[in-house]
Amino acid sequence: MSNTFVTPRVVTTIAQSRIDYNNSITSLLQNFASAGEPDPAEISLEGTTGLNTGMFWYKAGTTTSDGQGRFLVYDGSSFTRNGIGTYQMASAAEANNAATAGTIEYGDIILLGTDELYIVNAAGTGIKQIGGTATSLSGLVATQFLRSDIETTAEANVYFNSNNFIKVPTGSTAQRPEPGKTISGQIRFNEDLDQFEGRHLSSWTSLSPTIPAANTDNMTANIVFTTTGVGSRYINENLTFNPSTGAVSATVFNSTSDERLKENIEPISDAINKIETLQGYIFNFKNQKDKSAGLLAQQVQEVLPEAVYEDDKGKLSLNYSAVIALIIQAFNEYKNITDAKIANLESKLNGR
Questions:
Q1: How far is 65 from 111, CA to CA, in rounded Å?
Q2: In the chain, which residue ranges form alpha helices assigned H by DSSP?
Q3: Residue 237 to residue 250: CA distance in whole angstroms
Q4: In the 8-state DSSP scheme, what is residue 79?
């Protein structure tokens, strides 16, 4: 079919004018619907040949990745799209190829499958998802989202269903953020240390409950208690911890004491004399008003250093189980002395 446009003639009757007008519209609708771009040599308009600005062309066909199925308008040099195009394509690869080829352009909307919308990017080199699982925040203002790379504040709560989660950055110690990119409050998971850690001022601090690994000496472990009331925390009613006083209460405290686990076993010597150097005191700790009773670690350290532990800050703590062992041994020594004296007295009485 020719692409010739039928020009309405100057006529003297209304009927003939209507016929010519209908013929010209029919020629536009028929001749400008083609898979290939119109040939300027085959277009005749009012005695002239060629394309004119404002002419429409419907690119026929069903291959949307090739731009088929949309109206184009002649802008004086070429046919270009008329408005934003909408297409349905089978895959993202097909849409990206179409964008690269120029058959779809910036702003065009693409439906992939049945429920994923994409838009051609500004560079015309690919597509970006609209909504759904899109990873781009392009076009959003800062109050519409929280960023992890800058210090930001939001007056809102974040809620998750019971089967959802929040993902924090994960990496080795060497992969911690550079000093210039760290701020207090940052949280990450350290794969080397197998623990969560948080940034506080100029250092990273463990956020995980830790228990010393096997065969590890001189490690300090922190046990996390659940808060259940003002001033008191507990695992259950049988084990409580008051952080304001440092008091721990339990129904029973057991210390590992199996003989099969011990070596270099020897009795405490001169236990009576050691006991005599110790004094019991009533006192209160400087940061507390509650009275308590006990020994002074420094005095015990003089006679039984095995019962005293000194931390890396020089603070002393006392193993009262070891002091009980000293008391028992002193009692045994005293009993041996007493028994010997009684035996000697009985011997003298029987000799009369």
A1: 12
A2: 14-31, 92-101, 271-276, 297-303, 320-350
A3: 9
A4: E
Retrieve residue 98's tokens: 């179409």
Between the alpha carbon of residue 213 and those of residues 134, 210, 255, 258, 277, the distances in Å are 43, 9, 19, 21, 38
> Mind listing the pLDDT tens digit for each residue in 91-114?
888 888 888 887 777 778 888 876
Every domain of the chain with CATH number 1.10.10.10 lies at: 257-350
The rounded distance, in Å, linking the Cα atoms of 87 and 112 is 9
Is CATH 1.10.10.10 what the domain over 257-350 is classified as, yes or no?
A: yes
**275-323: per-residue pLDDT in tens?**
999 999 999 999 888 899 999 999 999 999 999 999 988 999 999 999 9
CA angle 56, 57, 63 (to 5 degrees): 145
Contact 177, 204 (CB under 8 A): no
Residues 70 and 59 sit within 8 Å (Cβ to Cβ)? yes
Query: In the Cβ-directed half-sphere of 164, how many Cα atoms lie within 13 Å?
Result: 5
- HEC assignment per residue over 91-151: CHHHHHHHHHHCCCCCCCEEEECCCEEEEECCCCCCEEEECCCCCCCCCCCHHHCCCCCCC
Residues present in the chain in total: 352
- Cα→Cα distances 124→102, 105, 266, Å: 7, 6, 85
pLDDT per residue over 242-262, tens digit each? Answer: 777 777 888 888 888 999 999
